[in-house]
Design brief:
With 260 residues, this protein is α/β, with parallel strands linked by helices. It is 44% helix and 15% strand. The protein contains 10 helices and 7 strands. The chain has a 7-stranded mixed β-sheet, with helices on both faces. Helix 2 packs across helix 3. It is globular and about 45 Å long.
């Protein structure tokens, strides 16, 4: 499998970074729509560390896109895009963070509870059991399949009003997910995400669902306190996947087409 896909006929001025970590392919629906406006690069992150993914994404942009690019990251990909934009400012003309996790750890404490509230009792218990397994040191058979099931449960919990759709994720990699996410969470605790915000040279746009399990206050309040200029759009009746949301999808794509 190649570590990227391209959409559209023009040179790639837009790069979409998937979430997970360890779940490539999920940005395909967004790439297909936005390719009507510009060439789009959808890279797949394969490295097993935050530093490795930063360098991998930098290389993919340099080798396969027309720099400087608009860099759009979703969920975990919003953080990764932030890291790259801060570290390599000459490569990025604009940063768009969609459905990002909170920039400070205190705002993340409510996320799991919000998700579990949206599941049935049995689903909630299953999710807690899987989470405990994935972050333990015990050997778990079919770990990637277990992670995929956890992703299905969290996806269900993360919607406000889901439009029917196919799963675009190509595969899930539990080792990448565990290793990268643990490192990234530590970086957040140490304030490294806010340090990256202070280093940004390019314009910043934040797009977030009002009903996302990840609270928008976890972005707005730290950004306001940083004194940085930014543009934030809160989508009403919208969860973590704006392009699959019945009431927010059209507004989401309208905003992105204006931004790029």
């Amino acid at each position: 499998m190649n570590d990227f896909r391209k959409y559209g006929e023009d040179s790639c001025k837009l790069v979409l970074v998937h979430g997970g970590p360890g779940a490539p392919g999920g940005m395909a629906p967004v790439a297909k729509v936005l390719s009507s406006r510009t060439g789009v690069l959808e890279p797949f992150q394969t490295k097993n560390s935050v530093a490795g993914q930063i360098e991998e994404l930098k290389s993919q942009i340099t080798n396969h896109a027309d720099v400087p690019v608009t860099l759009l990251g979703w969920s975990w990909g919003a953080w990764l895009a932030l890291f790259v934009a801060a570290e390599y400012p000459d490569l990025v003309s604009k940063l768009i963070m969609v459905s990002s996790g909170p920039l400070e750890a205190e705002y993340a404490k409510c996320i799991l509870g919000r998700r579990l509230e949206k599941l049935t009792h049995d689903e909630s218990e299953e999710a807690k059991s899987i989470l405990e397994m994935l972050y333990s040191d015990e050997i778990v058979e079919n770990r990637d399949s277990v992670l995929s099931r956890f992703g299905q449960l969290m996806t269900k919990a993360d919607f406000y009003c889901e439009e029917p759709h196919e799963n675009e994720v190509i595969e899930t990699d539990s080792d990448i997910h565990k290793n990268v996410w643990e490192q990234a969470a530590d970086m957040r605790k140490l304030g490294e995400l806010l340090e990256c915000i202070s280093k940004l040279k390019c314009p910043l746009t934040v797009i977030h669902g009002k009903n996302d399990s990840h609270p928008f206050e976890g972005l707005k309040n730290p950004l306001d306190n940083s004194g940085r200029n930014y543009n934030m759009v809160i989508l009403d009746k919208c969860g973590h996947y704006p392009w699959y949301e019945k009431y927010a999808r059209d507004e989401f794509f309208s905003i992105l087409l204006d931004e790029i």
